[in-house]
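# nightly structure sweep
# worker-07 picked up a monomer target from the shared queue
# config: single-sequence mode, recycle default, output format = structure tokens
# input follows
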Amino acid sequence: EQRFRSFLDRPVAVAAHQQHLLLGIGSSVIHSGPGTPYNFSASGGAGEIGTGDTVTGFSILPGVATTAAIAIFSRNHTKILYGTALSGPSPFTLVNFETETGAVPYTIQTLDRPYYLDDRGVVDLKAVQEYGNFSAAAQTRLVQPFIEQERGRAISSTIQRTKGQYRLFFNDG
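# output follows
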């Protein structure tokens, strides 16, 4: 149990979602019990969801009370976690969204929708009416040579809401 506790002190991603605290640790999403963000005991409703790749971040997505959704980004794929704390003993359903692309760590931000850096460039994830509920599209085709040059150097991101800007920061100054 002490080894497990040390992992909880170093999550790569943290999000509050539908009365649960979610922690991205390695290739797992660990969720607290419903309404008890400090309780990570299975007897209290907590659990672990394997993703198959190292988690790089989360982004809350639009949904309704019965189909709440959060994107779980890994470096090489994206999954959508559906469900709520009130859905019974198995509150969540994990669905593959993008099996070939994911997000670079520390580049996920939500402006009007999630934006993140991927191998295709800066990508946005928006809600759609078609099957699958969401669509991802690259937004940086005009500056793709610059993005390709800097991709491995991304260390952080931020948004400027009043200007509607998504900004990336790189380790080369």
